[in-house]
TrEMBL record:
One annotated Gene Ontology cellular component of this protein: cytosol
Aminoacyl-tRNA synthetase class Ia domain ranges (all copies): 31-158
Protein name according to UniProt: valine--tRNA ligase
Reaction(s) catalysed by this chain's protein: tRNA(Val) + L-valine + ATP = L-valyl-tRNA(Val) + AMP + diphosphate
């Protein structure tokens, strides 16, 4: 680390009181050649300005409207390696100068690594350009894949093949939705006013009761996961429900009733509408 050394040279002919900045402690002063060097005792921590970030960016020490509105905030998202150097010290500074902690929750995300386990870095040349991934599989596929792979506080091992998960899921959603939307002649009478969704259907058969109960279970599960920052578990619950419960089971059963039972169509629309609303934070484009 770069240190600051103060040279205090005492001699009969001259007295030097200067500052030397060096990466390593020098053996002698480069100006006068003296070896009587004393390390500076008053050093400012390089993280000091970062401590003040939660309130200094909003005009502190002035009590601006922005400061009143945005301090304290709700959540800080950060990596684990700077908990002591940054996060803990922001809390200390907030308590010292504002008498209140700067945030109420801290979400610690993992480090993105390549498939060999090395940290992704420009210097290593192992980064994956997200724009290339978006061009190949779409933004929704990228978003859903990343969220699904981001386990709570665990590192992510990423390769270009990792995004096939999101691509395949998007294709599944598109194909299943097209099958249901072919029955679009009943959408108007099923829709609630002011774009509030589809009318709650009345189940007629055992599969209807089962799939609706699964939907309500998933809604509860996702709410709990999102509130506890377990985003990958929420994404996994949506994936499991739509791909396996809805498509593999209920949709196949419903095909036998589509031509005979209007009630089956209403349940399909209700399930699709609610699923797309739940999925929207993860895949905003296809759900729109």
């Amino acid at each position: 680390k770069t240190g600051s050394l103060k040279s205090k040279v005492k001699s009969q002919k001259s007295k030097v009181n200067g500052v030397i900045v060096a990466e390593k402690k020098p053996e002698r002063c480069p100006v006068c050649g003296s070896t009587d060097l004393v390390q500076e005792e008053d050093v400012l921590d390089t993280w000091f300005s970062s401590w003040l970030w939660p309130f200094s960016v909003f005009g502190w020490p002035e009590e601006t409207e922005e400061l009143k509105k945005f301090y304290p905030t709700d959540v800080l998202i950060t990596a684990p390696e700077i908990l002591f150097f940054w996060v803990a010290r922001m809390v200390m500074a907030g308590l010292e100068f504002k008498k209140e902690i700067p945030f109420h929750s801290v979400y610690i995300h993992g480090t993105v690594r390549d498939k060999t386990g090395r940290k992704m870095s420009k210097s290593f040349g192992n980064i994956i350009d997200p724009l290339n991934i978006i061009a190949e599989v779409g933004a929704d596929s990228l978003r859903f894949s990343l969220v699904s792979l981001t386990s709570f506080s665990q590192d992510i091992f990423l390769s270009e093949d990792s995004f096939l998960l999101g691509r395949n899921f998007a294709n599944k959603i598109w194909n299943a939705s097209r099958l249901i939307l072919e029955k679009g002649n009943v959408v108007a009478e099923l829709a609630l006013p002011n774009n509030k969704g589809i009318k709650s259907p009345k189940p007629a058969h055992l599969p209807d009761f089962w799939i609706l109960s699964r939907l309500y279970e998933v809604e509860t599960e996702i709410t709990r996961d999102l509130e506890s920052f377990r985003f990958n578990e929420a994404a996994g619950a949506l994936y499991q429900f739509f791909w396996h419960d809805f498509c593999d089971w209920y949709l196949e059963i419903a095909k036998f009733y589509l031509k005979k039972k209007k009630q089956t169509v209403s349940i399909l629309f209700y399930l699709l509408d609610n699923f797309l609303r739940l999925l929207h934070p993860f895949m905003p484009f296809i759900t729109e």
